[in-house]
């Protein structure tokens, strides 16, 4: 009941038009099942083996999002299961996903990961790198990948203003791409940012997808 209550409370707070990804990584199948029975259908995992294992045991209408750093040698493993990959952080990975998706004859949605946070350890493109990468030529070459938007994280600091600036920067890159290469492309519409501790700021700055784990499931079970 705890997870059900947490979900109901959260869904009451998240504005209409913002999609909730329940970050279920490191949580047991029973926890996911309780969330599923409460109506949640979108789950986020960050390890290929764990996602594939859970996908076998959960109902077929679950939408699996891969939200962690994706190693190239794991792409083939997750592609049959994923609805959306949030964390494309290199052209090499983007083209590999396209090739592997072509091999199994499906189209895969991805988000391009931006790095605007203070931490050096985070993955992703700088705004300038991403603007240089995404050209009409690149988009036309990707036959089996649909670039659906951008994803990013704010700096892990106790400074709401800095967090707000980071989210603002991520949204600004999305808006630039939407006005340029993706003008008129309805499939390019997702801004994935915000987690348990900062999603309200992210939504205020233009997120329409949030990734929330702890608020729903409690602390992770490693």
How far from one another are the termini? 22 Å
- Can you give the helix content as a percent range? 40-55%
- Element string (H = helix, E = strand): HEHEHEHEHEHHEHEHEH
How would you sum up the major sheet? 8 strands, parallel
Our count of helices gives 10
Beta-strand content: 15-25%
* Structural class by helix and strand composition: alpha/beta
Number of strands: 8
Residue ranges: pLDDT <50 for 5 or more in a row? none
Strand order of the largest sheet: 7-6-5-4-3-2-1-8
Radius of gyration: 17 Å
Question: Which word captures the global form?
Answer: globular
Mean pLDDT, to the nearest integer, reads 96
Describe the model.
With 222 residues, this protein is of the alpha/beta class. The chain contains 10 helices and 8 strands. The longest helix is centred in the C-terminal third of the chain and has 20 residues, at 160-179. The two termini are 22 Å apart. 39% of the residues are buried.
List descriptors.
41% helix; single chain; eight-stranded parallel sheet; 10 helices
Lay out the secondary structure:
Elements lengths: L1 H12 L5 E5 L5 H9 L4 E4 L2 H10 L5 E4 L8 H4 L3 E7 L2 H13 L4 E8 L11 H7 L2 H6 L3 E9 L6 H20 L10 E3 L6 H6 L4 E4 L1 H4 L5
Parallel strand pairs: 1-2, 1-8, 2-3, 3-4, 4-5, 5-6, 6-7
